[in-house]
Structures are given as structure tokens and as C-alpha cells.
Amino acid sequence: MRKENSKFLPYYVSEAGAHLVNRDYYAFVELDHFACYVLADGLDSDAEYNTAKSSVTSVLRMFIENPSMGRMSLTKLLVYANAEIKAESKNFNHRASIMIVVTDYTRIRYAQSGNVRFTLLRNGNVAQSSLDQSMASQYLLEDMISRDKVSVNEERNNLYCYLGQPNRDFKPFISKKLLLSEGDIICIYTRGIWENLDESELLDASEESKESKEFVDLIEDLLLTKQPIDLENYTFVSIYVDKIYIESKEKKKTKRLIIIVSILLVVAIIVLFVVLHFVRVARDKQIEATRVLAQNAWSDMGDGNIVGAKDTLKIAYDSARIAGMLEAASYKEYLAITELIDTAESKFSEGSYSDASDAYATAEAKSYNADKFGYDYITKRKQLVEGFLDVMDYISSGDIKMQKEDYSGAYSDYTTGLENASKIYFWTAKEELKPKIDECLAKIKEQDVAKLNKEAEGPEMTGDSYQTAKKYTEALDSYRKASELYAKAGNNDKVAEITTKIQTTIAAQAAEAERVQKEEENRKQQEEADRLAQIELNKQVTISQGKQKEMEGDQYMRNEYYEAAIEAYKKAYDIFLSVNDTALADGVSAKYMEAIAMKNALDPSAVLTVPTGG
After folding, report:
1. pTM for the complete prediction?
2. Which distant-in-sequence residues (6+ apart) come within 8 Å of 399 by Cβ?
């Protein structure tokens, strides 16, 4: 027997310190092949429920059922204890730190959740020590503080793992197996100790003591001598390893017989006194805890914590199968769904979106027929992957259009893909699309520039034609239109060339306008000269007519026809006055008066007067 052939000497002290109630709890069990020492530190203030005691008894109960120091076994102990505390936390948030130390009397392994500490002393040195699951310890790992400052750092009790924690965040630490040596001292202790004593003081006390009780008493004396203010509950457990189990060849031969006899003896005692009732009660609690685990798995799935749901379901399925629960089949299906989701997530992370979509589709179909476990999450993830695939399709379509020089179509696909990628946080696609869009815009700009240059050639050529035809206004309109198009195209050389043409055209237009104006002035001068000449010609004709009448009057005078002469002279007089020739009018007036005188001489009774014109 391992226990009989080894010697472990445990001793402990546990007090309330400066508080009225001691919420620490320590207990242990030493079986034939394994021993389990458990210390818990209650972190809540519920007066009706001792969280530390419940945690320790829960662990020991499960350990007795299946004694082992395997990593999975210890994890199950802590997960089960956590589930039990959560089940009791309906009206009060129960919390505790815990340290489990398991040995097969040759090796040792510890499992922790929180900041109950473990230290292994060997030959006056610290051979192994645990690391609190607190923010202060994180600072230590990040080299923000030194190890001796952890115990006084204000974040030392800010725990990221503890019993009573939501299942998805519960990640206890399980150590490696450590070989024991005779003379080793195993120390397990709570806050009241390590906040006031460091490891060097533990070493000093161990060197001054000969056995476990003396060591524990000396530690307590050191603590109380310091008279710390507001001393926390303190518990210090010391286990002196006087002898470890060393299996001999002869013992190996008798091992089977000893095991059989031991098993028969233990079974007989348990069957007679405890086992039936204990197993029934334990099974009921196991079933209740298993169902809590399943509920936690549903909650984890709802929160998208697939890893947490998967790990929880593994424990729930194993527990349900062992307990013979009908739900075991359902848990197995749930577990299969989480594995399918895990596969889909891996494909998704690798960028194999098509494979991920197929895996999600399989998981969706299986979930629909398994109480829709994780159905909403799977559907959302499937839709997300399909969104990723749509974005990839837009990228592929845009690439093809770029090859065909359909830059506008490619730009439409790329921008639609970018918009969709932004909505679903497809960052890698966004980074891929940005340079593609820039290239596309550059190509579109090149096309637009070429198109504008081509469009500008027409008005330029038209302007040249108008320029040649001396239609300067039309030429300027065409040149200005061409200049605008070249300017939009950014073709500064052509803009400068067109500007020169415009200036040349404006100069030609001004010269033409000056020539036309001069021609118009000459035309008007000629018209005025022609008008004056015509007036003079008309005057001469009129004078000629007047002279004709005057000559007629002269003829009548010679023939002594005085009345006809008077009439002819009067008409000649009127004609001369009409052209303002007073000299001729005065001359014919004298002849008119002579004719009147001659007539009056013949007929004095008919007196005539000299005409006055008109």
C-alpha cells in the first residue's frame, strides 16, 4: 500500500484574524493510493452559506469517487465545484479561492482557482511556488512589479479566476506533476498569511523547526508578532514529507493481491455504512450540476463562446454518461455541433470561406434537429460567411472587368464590395479593395482625359475652319469650348495652344472690324458725295428749266406778247428761287418788271406788280 509505505505529516492552523467569522476552510483525505489536501478562502459575506466549506467538501466528495491526479480529473473537480457554487448563487453571489494538492505519495500536483497559495520547500530553498490568478500577478508577468510587491499590490485580490465565476470565464490552473523528495515541506496558505509573511520568512521558520506542528506554530507566532492591522482570516497548512513511497519488486508481485483485498474491504465498508446513500445523494447532485453545466453551455453558445461551450459540454456529457442520464444523448449531439462549429470557425479563420459556409450549413441542419442548440449563432455566422463570399465575388467580378478595361463596371463592383466589407468588418478585403479602387479611379481618369481630349479636337478643328473662313466670332466660340474641354482633361499644353489661337483670332477679328469700319466710313462719304452731286445735278436741271422759261419770256418780249412773257418770267423766277439762286432770280425779276411795264404802257388800266417770289 502506498499510504502505508510512506509518511506524510500534515498540520494546520486556521483562525478568523481580526474578523468575527473565519471563512477559510481546510480538509483532506488520505486514501491508499492518493491523498488530497484542499484549502479554500471564502470571498463572500453570506452568513447562511459557507462557500469555502461547500467547495472543499464538494471537491473531496468527487475525489473519493474517482481518486486521480490526472489533469482532466483535477479540472473536473474544479468545474464541478464551480457548478455547485453557481447553483447555490440564485439569491447571493457566492465566491471562493481554492487550492487542491494531490499526491500519490511519490509525486505531487496542485490545481488552483484564485489566490490561495502553494509553496514547496526543499533543502532550505523554494523548489516550487504557485502564481495567484490576480491582476497583481499579471503585472508581475509583464515585469511591471517585482515578486515581493505582489502581496501588497492593490490589485492582489482582483481575481480573474475564482469559484462562482461564469463558466465561460472559468479557467483554473493545473500544475505539472512534481517529484517529491524526503524532507520536503508542502505549504498551503490563505491571504492572512501571504499578505504579511513572505517566502523567505517561511524558509527561516522551516530551518528553525523539526516537525510540522512546530513549523506551523512558529509561522503563527511570526504573523501575530507583526500585529497587522485588520488581519484577514488566515490558514496555514504544513505537510512534512518524512517518507515517500518507493515501490519494490517484491511489492509489485503482491500489489494485485493487496489491491484486490483493499478494494473488497473498502467496498464492503462503503456498502455497509455509507456508499448507497452517498452515491444516491452524490448522483442527484451530479445530475443537478450536470444540468447546470448544460445550461451554461447554452449560455456560452448564446454569447458566442464556442470554446467554453465545447469544454463544458465535454464535462457535461461525460458526467451525464457516467450518471446514466437520458440527456447524455442530447449532450453528445450538442457536443458534435460545437465541433462542427469549431471546424467552420477554423476554416473561416484560414480564409476558406466556401468550406466554412459548407461547415456552417451542416451545423445548421444538425442544430435544427437537436433542439436548435446554437441555431441562432450558427445562422448569424453562416450569414456572415456568405457576406464574406459576396464581397469576394465582387472582387473577382471587378478583377475580370478590369482585365476587359471596363473600368466603370469594375469601380462599381469594387465600391459595392468595399461598402459590404465595411458593414461586416471584413478588414482584409477592405485593405485589398482600397488599392484596387485607386487603380480603377486612375484608369477611369485616363479614359476621361482621353475622351475629353478627343471631344476637344472637334471644336478646335471647327474653330480652325471658321478662322480660315474669317468667321471670327464662331471661331472664338469653338476655341473657347475646346479650351474648356482641354482644361478639364488637364491638358495644359493644348490649353496654351488654344489660348494662342484665341488671341490670334481676337487680333484678326479686331483688324477685320477696323477694316469694315473704314470701308463703311468710305461708303458713307461716297454716298454723301453722290447725294451732293445729285443735288447739284438736280439744281442745274432745275436752273436749266428756269432758263428755258426765261428764254421763252425773252421770245415773247421780242414778239410783244407781254402777258405770255410775264407768265414765263414768273415761272422762271419761281424756279430760280426754288434752288436758292437769287442772282438768276433777280435777273429774271428785272425782265419781269420790264414786261409788266411794257404791258402797262399798252393798257394803263391793267396795273401789274413785281412778283416777290413763290
Report:
1. 0.44
2. 410, 436
